[in-house]
């Protein structure tokens, strides 16, 4: 290696090094957006009193909580709606009552699903998607037309808790 | 070089493996980029490579780095008073973001050092001589431009320091006759620094100033290219050489030293993010170090003479520097050398002297140092709160405004410390102007109540000493009780009972939770409650026993609710009605009135939370 090629190599290496020192964090910084979630984390929330829930008929309740949008925390925002379906009227141990909670967001293209009390279905107004009251998509045979939804409605973990005043609350583990 | 310029732009294909470079050949056919590269790298340096040239090269690279890091920061930054600090803090939370902002911060300062070095080199080598006068002039015009670039950049973080800086700088602009006040209004976007100010500064910093700088630099570099790099008046001995690689390697080494320093600072120290802007925060605004000379200059000119420091001297220096080539032409070779060295010594010497004087002044100013240290603490706290809870909707200044630990002492000092002290066991804290009421540090805790029930303390300055209650029924009762004790055992027994009462009252305040007590302590708590029910209810109310009106309610004594009632209106029936109240004013006697209370609802809550030491604390490491 002669002097000239050494100097050329040195110049090129240093140029490459400093390009890397800037490009690496730059790319990493931009990529960080991909993993960013504008959410408030999954916490159990009291969404309704057990006494207010009818048996067998889905009820839509609002989920409120702090919404984190980039740097700002918005307190007590509506984070979304869910359907609560109380399955039974268990009066002996009310904390063991089976209650299911489903997202109101259609897994097809994120439209807001509605409850159709006449058909006993959850129906999506956008593309005629439909689910039974267990959140499962209905088949073409049941529906009479193609069901565009790719899967069931998302469900959440539900528990019944008692507060200081002996009031029973439905608590939903909602994260979004 | 002239031979290069007349070269045919289209190159013959390279000799080695033409197929590998086929698409580059195609590109070259259409753009003749190889000609461009050759113009840059194969140009001849008539005086050979020089380390001095690398300063300018490095300066240029710093500008490129500022543009690159600036673009990346622009992806996140949000220019308004409500969001600026929050978005910068958001950038800082990401390690890469913090590094990029650090590079942007320190590279800007490196630019000033390099700019100065470049200027000095050009003066010493007389590189401004014909035909390069326009290179010199456009370079000098970059001085105000780069200063404006930095001045518009620093306040963008929305920190108290930055906002104070632009406030002062706006006022400096306003001292310019006739146009000054108008320019100030336009820059600030009205009569007060606000959302629009930051948007204006942002526009200048990332829009107008870069455009002007690009235009000026393009002209500057075109002239340099046209006339070649000046080797200076003295060197005629070296042989001409090509730019690549002799000069390039020098440039890269200088760049590595500068950028290495910048990167290490950015990585290890990071760019500062001072406390969010809030007019309530006291501070002594200082410009950045590269502007301290101008700041110091203002110390010597007051009143109507201020304009001498803010406008006349800086303009005179700039105009003088611009005219240096003309003066130089009129000088003999020897006089020119003396002249140029004198200019450097005067310019650099004057600048350094002013800068160092200003720094020395602040270093000796203990009050300034203490205030800076306090601001650093506040900044740390604001960042911790933002990390933990996010920034509230009202903007970053609300972080500390809603923080009991920050606001509590200020509210206490302003409203309570005329009479009450708030000092801990070691005497640290807020000392009353004229101590004439109980020390409220730890009010309602087991320690505080035990002190109150101590015959040696109750009539002392920490409790009722300087109040009418020093001779009151309560103090008399405690004294009588202990005086009646005939033996040390009895006194010890009494002290133990008082401690049980203190424990029971600390439980009322919520400082003691039953679930956290062991069995012995629970027994003691019950004993304390029983003692209150038998011995205190003659005067005090305690839950269902006793009556209000003769002494403060012991139900919930020291709790947030109790304190709210007491501070709002101590004359209330639960506290010190009629003539029982010594001197304490009612701070929030009209609960539903928006104004007219000494403490607002929010202030009251902050004060109570602070008295109860209920605030977020950083996790100890």
The total count of strands of chain B amounts to 4
Strand arrangement within the widest β-sheet of chain A reads: 1-9-8-4-3-2
The proportion of residues forming helix of chain B, as a percent range, comes to: 55-70%
- What does the radius of gyration of chain A come to? 26 Å
> What name is given to the CATH topology of the largest domain in chain A?
Rieske Iron-sulfur Protein
Helicity level of chain A: 10-25%
Shape annotation of chain B? elongated
CA-to-CA gap between the ends of chain B? 64 Å
On the 0-100 scale, what is the average pLDDT of chain A? 87
What share of the residues of chain A does DSSP label as strand, in percent? 25-35%
- What's the CATH first level of the largest domain in chain B? Mainly Alpha
Oligomer category: heterodimer
What proportion strand of chain B? under 5%
Query: Got a strand count of chain A?
Result: 9
CATH architecture of the largest domain in chain A: 3-layer Sandwich
CATH fold descriptor of the largest domain in chain B: Cytochrome Bc1 Complex, Chain C
- N to C succession of SSEs of chain A: HEEEEEEEHEE
Largest sheet of chain A: 6 strands, antiparallel
Biggest sheet of chain B, open or closed, and with what strands and sense?
2 strands, antiparallel
Q: How many domain regions of chain B?
A: 3
SSE topology sketch:
The complex is a heterodimer of chains A (176) and B (621).
Chain A: H1 3-32, E1 43-49, E2 59-69, E3 72-86, E4 99-103, E5 114-116, E6 121-123, E7 130-131, H2 140-143, E8 155-162, E9 168-174
Antiparallel strand pairs in A: 1-9, 2-3, 3-4, 4-8, 5-6, 6-7, 8-9
Chain B: H1 2-5, H2 22-31, H3 33-41, E1 44-45, H4 51-74, H5 84-93, H6 95-125, H7 133-153, H8 160-174, H9 179-188, H10 195-227, E2 241-242, H11 246-269, H12 292-297, H13 306-322, H14 324-329, H15 333-364, H16 366-389, H17 397-401, H18 404-415, E3 422-423, E4 429-430, H19 446-452, H20 473-483, H21 488-509, H22 519-536, H23 560-568, H24 601-611
Antiparallel strand pairs in B: 1-2, 3-4
